[in-house]
Each structure stands twice: as structure tokens, then as C-alpha cells.
Design goal:
The chain is an all-beta fold. It has no helices and eleven strands. The strands form two sheets. Strands 2, 4, 5, 6, 9, 10 and 11 form a seven-stranded mixed beta sheet that branches. Strands 1-3-8-7 form a four-stranded antiparallel beta sheet, with no helix packed on it.
């Protein structure tokens, strides 16, 4: 299984970025997906999650109203649209996946995910 993130970069505060996650080696529609981030010296934290169908989503409070998670099950892709970015959003962003064939749920903790990407750097300048 491989998860490949892309779309990170350097942006000014108030700007936008869209992250993408492309999975390899899984049947995408059988997996709950999530985005996490890790800033220097901090723990990896939950950002957003989406259920297998895409019908349910969750966000950490600090990104609600600014970030939108989505998935394209026809093309096996997940996205994180990030608007109104702030310097405190600076981190390495990771895509995560967990098999959940029998349940259409959103997973919100690190321990619930089995598969991780290598991460993509997002830097927001003030």
C-alpha cells in the first residue's frame, strides 16, 4: 500500500492550497481516509477525515470553515482544500487510510489508521 501526497508549498497568509492524496494498492472505496499534520516539535494531529462514501466528514476546530476535505471515488483521489491559510497551519501534512468495508465512518485518531503517506510540506508566511 502506498499513499502519495502532493500540492504542498509556500503561500502567504490568507492564501490557498489544495492537497491531493493518491492511493496505490488499495480498493479506495473500502477505506476511510484522513489528513493529519505535524509541525516542528509537536505531535502529529488530526486535521480532517472523510468516510468511505464521502458522506461524512470531520474537522479539527482550528480549521473548520477554512478547510474542506473531499474524495473522488471514481478516480481514487482525496483532496484537502485549504483557504485563508494562517502561519499556524505550517506543518507537514500526511494522508492516512484505514480499511472499513463494513462501516461508513470517519476516523479521527492516529491509532485508528494503518497506512500513511510520506507527507507534503505546507509553509504559510506572515
Amino acid at each position: 500500500v502506498q499513499l502519495v501526497e502532493s500540492g504542498g508549498g509556500l503561500v502567504q497568509a490568507g492564501g490557498s492550497l489544495r492537497l491531493s492524496c493518491e492511493p496505490f494498492g488499495i480498493t479506495f472505496t473500502n477505506y476511510a481516509m484522513g489528513w493529519f499534520r505535524q509541525a516542528p516539535g509537536k505531535e502529529r494531529e488530526f486535521v480532517s477525515g472523510i468516510s468511505r462514501s464521502g458522506g461524512s466528514t470531520r474537522y479539527t476546530s482550528s480549521v473548520k470553515g477554512r478547510f474542506t476535505v473531499s474524495r473522488d471515488n471514481a478516480n481514487d483521489m482525496m483532496y484537502l482544500q485549504m483557504n485563508n491559510l494562517k502561519p499556524e497551519d505550517t506543518a507537514v501534512y500526511y494522508c492516512a487510510a484505514m480499511f472499513r468495508l463494513s462501516m461508513d465512518v470517519v476516523l479521527t485518531t492516529r491509532d485508528e489508521y494503518d497506512y500513511w503517506g510520506q507527507g507534503t510540506q505546507v509553509t504559510v508566511s506572515s
